[in-house]
Write a structure and sequence with these properties.
Largest sheet: 3 strands, antiparallel
Helix content: 10-25%
Oligomer: single chain
Order of helices and strands: EHEEEEH
Number of strands: 5
Structural class: alpha+beta
Length: 107
C-alpha cells in the first residue's frame, strides 16, 4: 500500500449525456462500469495510497463547479446549456437531440 490514506489522487466525471446502461448493474458489473463511466451522473475518485490510488470511490448525481461556474448539476452536464455551446450545437440541425440526457445507467 503506502502513501497518504486520505489522498484523492484523481477524479473523473462523465461528459456524454447519451451514455446509458439499460440493464441492472448486477447483470454484468464490468460491462456496466465500462459504459456508465461516460455518463454525467457518474463521478468517481481514486483515493487512498500512492497514485493512481488503491480505492475507487463512486458518487452519483453530483453538483460540481469551478471558480463559481457550474458544470454539472445533480448529475446533468449543464456546461452544454451555455449559450456558446448551444450556438455550436445549432450548427448541426440534423441532430437536435445529440446531447439529450439519458438517465438510465443501471442503478
Amino acid at each position: 500500500m503506502g502513501g497518504d490514506p486520505f489522498a484523492v489522487n484523481s477524479w473523473h466525471t462523465g461528459i456524454y449525456p447519451k451514455t446509458f446502461y439499460s440493464r441492472p448493474i448486477d447483470d454484468d458489473v464490468q460491462r456496466w462500469s465500462d459504459l456508465a463511466f461516460g455518463n454525467p451522473r457518474y463521478t468517481h475518485f481514486h483515493t487512498c495510497g500512492d497514485n493512481p490510488g488503491n480505492i475507487a470511490t463512486a458518487m452519483f448525481d453530483a453538483t460540481i463547479s469551478f471558480d463559481d461556474q457550474l458544470f454539472w448539476e445533480a448529475g446533468r452536464f449543464v456546461f452544454l446549456d451555455q449559450p456558446e455551446q448551444q450556438e455550436l450545437l445549432a450548427q448541426y440541425p440534423d441532430h437536435p437531440d445529440a446531447y439529450s440526457m439519458r438517465w438510465d445507467i443501471g442503478i
